[in-house]
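Thread: quick sanity check before group meeting

JM: Hey all, I'm pulling together slides for Thursday and realized we never actually wrote out the predicted structure for the chain we discussed last week. Dropping the sequence here so it's in one place. If anyone has concerns about the input, flag it before I start.
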Amino acid sequence: MYSVTAESAHHPDILALITALDRYQSALYPAESNHLLDLTELPDDSLILMIIRDAQLNAVGCGAVVLNGDGTGEMKRVYIDPAHRGQRLGDKLLAALEDEALSRCCHTVRLETGIKQHAAIRLYQQCGYERCPAFAPYHADPLSLFMEKTLVADVRLAAL
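JM (edit): ok, ran it. Output follows.
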């Protein structure tokens, strides 16, 4: 049994998961194509951060949405420990992040991922994300893929 709950960017379990993610991405891409945002530098009110724990309360995954204040957010730092992949934890994590984003008037979530992360790309596509052009602050990069998902059919509903 796994649980998905909110967590602080400063929590040691989050920091350990992000360190593992950074190591993984740094092995795949050059530094200029790695967009490794430090979540601890963001104001709490602009960050949704979730952690996945197993039945023994070990941290096995994390993910975040950075809220931009304009009804959009950016999915960041999504990671599932390799030993726990294949159990649809990514689906559960994204759904929890999207639900919380929507409750904070975020109607659209965008993301940047690397072209070599095939499992992540499949996850995002299965969860309804579609390819889109590069968005600020990014520029087109042959090693990056940009995606977005509208969380509500009528963006005016997100403001209610």
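AS: nice. The beta strands are 3-6, 47-53, 59-67, 72-80, 108-114, 130-131, 144-150. The domain at 3-159 is CATH 3.40.630.30 (Aminopeptidase).
JM: adding both to the slides.
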